[in-house]
Amino acid sequence: GIKWGKVKEMFAEIQSKCALPTEKLKQIASAMETEMHAGLASDGGSKLKMLLSYVDKLPTGDEKGLFYALDLGGTNFRVLRVQLGGKKGRVVDQDHLEVSIPPHLMIGACQDLFDFIAEALSRFAALESEEHKLPEGKQRELGFTFSFPVKQLSLSSGTLIKWTKGFSIEEAIGKDVVAELTKAMERQGLDMKVTALVNDTVGTLVGGRYDDSDVMAGVILGTGSNAAYVERASTISKWHGDLPQSGEMVINMEWGNFKSPLLPITEFDEAMDFESLNPGEQIFEKLVSGMYLGEVVRRVLLKVAQEYPIFGDIVPPKLETPFILRTPQMSKIHHDSSPDLKDVGTKLKEVLGIHNTSLKTRKFVVDVCDMVAKRAARLAAAGIYGIIKKIGRDTKSDPKQRTVIAIDGGLFEHYTIFSKCLDDTLKELLGEEMKNSVVITHSNDGSGVGAALIAASHSDN
Ligand code: ADP
Ligand code: MG
């Protein structure tokens, strides 16, 4: 039989390493804030790159015309066509196409990836209806959402710093991704100009601001995790150019690379990091984002199964396969509210080939998911609280003050227990007095519309 007392003891020890009481989260938020300062002071001053986006004006609602957006940065890429109608019309019409990226292209040749993208974009552009055609002589314009760290040289150019989230194409590092995309579009005979290169966090912020003028930050919780926010340009000491007229600049934090001795890192996280494509990098992202949560759960279950026969006398072979348990499946397990945990049983069978689990074992699997998901959600809340502190919105200067955080990404959108815990934790950090003046909103596909809006407001058509 299974010695559940021993299992619980082992689990309690893992849980204690993952624990994030309020005080510790506040320390993590302060550490994030300190790193933000350091990253704004000088290039290379911090693990947080605090990248300039060159987006220094936010949408007004007056944006008009037909614009394209392309969103590349995870498992899928999307192409989008938006018809903007100004203050009255808003988003008049919108159309999109989603294509999954063949895994071999994520680790192959640079040109192959961009050719694949340009080909899909070209197919999509060919479907333009008559009413959406641009006037004769006008070139199509595109906002390119590229969700990897980029050293931006201008609004419409930037070089790739490094890959994340399972992409690894060595030869692309240091290249201008807009130039690569432009060459690929030319090879397709596609007449389109890249007007803006934006990170998905920046797009989410801008798309969110279009709907709500109190949006101050954009956060991605999807395959990866990152955030962007509106900073006062005068505080960016590493910026030596002219100050923008607005006095503001959107900063892409690249918070996925945040690291601190305060982070609750276990042996499971260390082993996963060690075996990853980018060891030592993106440590915060590996604790928080959808690409990794299921994998951490798998590693915990494997360790327990190696010591105690929770899944039978032999360790299920599939449980030894890295990344076999994906976060959407973990989410399904975690949300099972049936008395006999039917969905948990089904998933264990389907995904891990484990049959006939007892209710106790199923409950235990749910507990492991709960630990990993809540650690992630609480850390994400601490990151957001760090931003709120940095921009001075953790106290009230005016009773009507409202701060909105626009969030997008499959993890936030679909993993309800995660999103609820994130919201609750942020309120816990803000305290009674402030908790109602900060609001989280789901910016559904804001990053695509955001990129089109940026292209529109910087268009020379
Ligand atoms: P990307 O981050 O790749 O641009 P998305 O924002 O759509 O794309 O996020 C996709 C990610 O969200 C997946 O990789 C997965 O980790 C997570 N995800 C998707 N669906 C769910 C779900 N039902 N439950 C939990 N996580 C999910
Ligand atoms: Mg995305």
From TrEMBL:
**EC annotation from Swiss-Prot or TrEMBL:** 2.7.1.-
Positions of the Hexokinase C-terminal domain? 217-456
Q: Which PROSITE patterns match?
A: HEXOKINASE_1, HEXOKINASE_2, PROKAR_LIPOPROTEIN
InterPro entries documented for this protein: ATPase_NBD, Hexokinase, Hexokinase_BS, Hexokinase_C, Hexokinase_N
Q: Domain of life, per the record?
A: Eukaryota
Which GO BP terms, alphabetically? glucose metabolic process; glycolytic process; intracellular glucose homeostasis; response to glucose
What chemistry does it catalyse, as a reaction equation? a D-hexose + ATP = a D-hexose 6-phosphate + ADP + H(+); D-fructose + ATP = D-fructose 6-phosphate + ADP + H(+); D-glucose + ATP = D-glucose 6-phosphate + ADP + H(+)
What is the official name of this protein in its record? Answer: Phosphotransferase
Q: Which organism's genome codes for this protein?
A: Carex littledalei
